[in-house]
Write a structure and sequence with these properties.
Chain lengths: 228, 490
């Protein structure tokens, strides 16, 4: 009975989606807001990467929401996993190549991660993407040496201060009599590293927060896993 | 100052990010962070309410005028809900002290921030973001009781909630593909031409089912009894009392502003009726206090959906009256269930152990059924007169089901009330009868006092709600307020 209803639901949903898809005219989306943003974004925000100007400028509060979702997910996972700690050394260490390869990759990954964060307003990339690379940089040595441990206190410190500085930048704009999260300090240097005012700062906060959060979550998961 | 309204939305996020650090430095300071932020939020919103002469207004985030940027839309309805979120957040604050306090309180702050966002935001996708944040924060809070059954309930909720999110996103994507905008006011302008078709209807139904997961809509509410029976009572009360209403608020705005198709309304009415029938019958058969409350909450939400299918001012008045009544009563009942959870049979003679709790329970029950001097009567009466005035036969079925549901409600609530006053059996010492804890009883009594106050001042309260409903039902006012360029900043 239950399988049958599931099948019926899936079939109905598939039929609905197919009939919707047949009614859509592809290739000619109405770009009402999109075109308006494209034509003014570089002037209004000073960022050459229009995606960034949307993510941090026009829809900045969505990004704040996404950051909070990530934070909530990490906190919820922490609640479920509890404060169990692994007994170090139960897993075999990685081999020579893995250990030293991981150690050598660390600075490279850090460089690339920060590069992507700092150029988020110029080229594709930004805080979320760079942050994930930073997290990978910290997680890689952990895979090679299962006994090693990340400094969780430090990570949650970075995470908290990065997240709150995103909001602080927004609140400063509010205190200056502007709207919350309004881009400020827009210089006349479109396309250069120092441009787009507060947007790169926001992306730095996003990158650090995402990096610290993911690294903490991954190491938390890895440690709980090794216990079971 | 109008631009301050963003603070009750942002400061809880700020506090949540910093709370783990503050807690590590000093637990004593950390414990005060959350309540202080919520109090400040109440103060700001309360001030706005009192000085609310310039309402409604729209607040552009980032200074980008809508529809390019995201705006908050503040009318009396949004403000009322935002205020309720902060207040209830304060009342249901998870003050329990253990190693996980920081995480739990941070999640609660996130939940409050997201709920405030749901009340205020004027952008469809922004609403979705906050809706997701509510979902993720509640996953954490529900599973925080760390029992096996809580985990099982959370998993079920997680799966249903995921399906709901995907459906909502599908609906939003369809709307965007047709109109190219996400701002509610802008959509309201475009809807008569571009969404008044099959695609628009599909989009609405996807969103209805998706958002309906939180609003306890009929086919997607199977998570409700498990979650409410296993989660902490404070969390259940917040979810049943407030979060379900905020999901309703999204649907209300969509109905008033964008979707006027007759079919959309009929589907909602139909699902509402099914919700009432299934919820009330299940509540009648429930053997556990919290489950009974959960099922009864499904039934009540079904009634609100029936009311929502009359989307003019009178219908909205019924929606608001039923919503706020349910908010008061169900929150109070869940606080009582804090000590009275578990099998109903155990409650035999509980009135002797805790007379005040029994009296408060009877007060809530009477109002829930709709006894004349209490606000519940007034709320239900508004809906009945509205339903009777409709001509379509489906509305009359709704009316019949509604009356029948009231009878069933009376049956199971009075059965429990009678049990409370049954003499205690000889071999059972009175100390073993469960009793609501002190704090919960005080909070429950608080809701009871609120209920009585509403009964005393029913005329001004009714006028106020009527005014709120009038403002919310006015789509032109919404469009003009948002798109006339009242954005803050440049």
């Amino acid at each position: 009975m239950r399988n049958l209803t599931g099948l019926l639901f899936a079939g109905g949903l598939g039929f609905m989606l197919l009939s919707i898809a047949s009614g859509l005219d592809f290739g000619a989306p109405p770009m009402l807001v999109g075109e308006a943003i494209q034509s003014v974004a570089p002037q209004e925000t000073g960022a050459t990467n229009i995606v960034t100007s949307v993510v941090l400028g026009y829809r900045g509060i969505d990004t704040l929401g996404e950051l909070s979702i990530l934070f909530a997910a990490a906190a919820a996972a922490g609640l479920v996993l509890g404060r169990r700690h692994t007994t170090a050394g139960t897993l075999t260490e990685g081999g020579f190549v893995l250990r030293y390869g991981g150690a050598m990759l660390f600075p490279l990954l850090m460089t690339i991660g920060f590069y992507i964060i700092f150029h988020g307003h110029l080229t594709p990339g930004g805080g979320f993407q760079g942050g994930v690379i930073l997290a990978a940089a910290f997680f890689l040595p952990l895979l090679a040496r299962p006994g090693a441990r990340l400094h969780h206190g430090m990570l949650s410190m970075i995470e908290g201060f990065a997240g709150s500085s995103f909001i602080l930048i927004g609140l400063v704009a509010l205190a200056e009599g502007e709207a919350f999260l309004q881009p400020m300090l827009i210089q006349d240097t479109l396309g250069q590293l120092v441009s787009a005012g507060t947007l790169p700062l926001l992306y730095l906060a996003v990158g650090l927060k995402v990096g610290a959060e993911l690294a903490g979550l991954l190491s938390h998961l890895a440690q709980t896993e090794s216990e079971a | 100052m109008n631009s301050m309204v963003v603070l009750p939305l942002v400061l809880p996020l700020f506090g949540a990010f910093l709370l783990p650090i503050i807690m590590r430095a000093s637990v004593g300071v950390g414990l005060w962070v959350g309540p202080a932020i919520l109090l400040y939020g109440c103060w700001i919103l309360g001030n706005q309410w009192i000085s609310g002469t310039a309402m409604p207004f729209s607040l552009a985030i980032g200074g980008f005028a809508p529809p390019m940027g995201i705006n908050l839309y503040v009318d009396s309805l949004a403000l009322l809900f935002a205020l309720a979120v902060q207040l209830l957040g304060l009342i249901f604050w998870p003050f329990k002290l253990d190693p996980e306090t920081a995480r739990r309180q941070a999640l609660m702050l996130l939940l409050v921030a997201a709920s405030t966002g749901l009340a205020l935001s004027g952008d469809l996708f922004n609403l979705y973001v906050f809706y997701e944040l509510v979902a993720v924060a509640t996953f954490g809070l529900i599973s925080a009781s760390s029992t096996g059954s809580a985990y099982a309930a959370t998993i079920r909720y997680l799966i249903l909630s995921g399906i709901g999110s995907v459906l909502t996103l599908l609906g939003i994507a369809l709307i965007y593909s047709q109109t190219g905008t996400l701002n509610l006011a802008h959509l309201a302008q475009l809807a008569p031409e571009q969404l008044n078709n099959k695609l628009g209807l599909t989009a609405f139904l996807s969103i209805l089912i998706g958002v309906g997961v939180k609003a306890e809509l009929f086919p997607v509410n199977t998570w409700v009894p498990e979650v409410y029976a296993t989660a902490a009572s404070r969390v259940s009360a917040f979810l049943a009392g407030l979060v379900s209403k905020l999901a309703l608020l999204i649907i209300l705005r969509l109905l008033v502003l964008i979707f006027h198709q007759q079919e959309a309304i009929q589907v909602m009415l139909f699902l509402g009726i099914l919700g009432v029938v299934s919820g009330e019958l299940a509540a009648w058969r429930a053997k556990d206090m919290r489950r009974m409350l959960a099922f009864s909450s499904i039934g009540q939400l079904g009634m609100i959906f029936i009311a929502l299918s009359i989307p003019d001012q009178a219908g909205l008045l019924a929606v608001l009256a039923l919503s706020f009544h349910h908010l008061l009563v169900k929150s109070g009942l869940f606080m009582l269930a804090d000590g009275w959870g578990g099998a109903i049979e155990n409650l035999r003679g509980a009135a002797k152990r805790s007379p005040l709790a029994a009296i408060v329970f009877i007060l809530f029950s009477l109002s829930l059924i709709g006894m004349p001097p209490l606000p519940g009567f007034w709320a239900k009466f508004t809906l009945i007169t509205e339903l009777a005035a409709q001509t379509s036969p489906l509305y009359l079925i709704g009316l019949a089901v509604f009356l029948l549901a009231t009878v069933i409600e009376a049956a199971y609530l009075f059965r429990l009330a009678a049990l409370l006053y049954r003499p205690v059996s000889e071999e059972k010492p009175i100390d073993t009868i469960p009793k609501p804890a002190g704090v919960s009883l005080v909070s429950a009594s608080l809701f009871g006092v609120g209920l009585l106050a509403a009964a005393l001042f029913i005329t001004p309260v009714g006028e106020l709600l009527n005014h709120v409903a009038g403002q919310a039902a006015n789509a032109e006012l919404y469009i003009d307020t948002v798109l006339a360029g009242t954005g803050g900043g440049r």
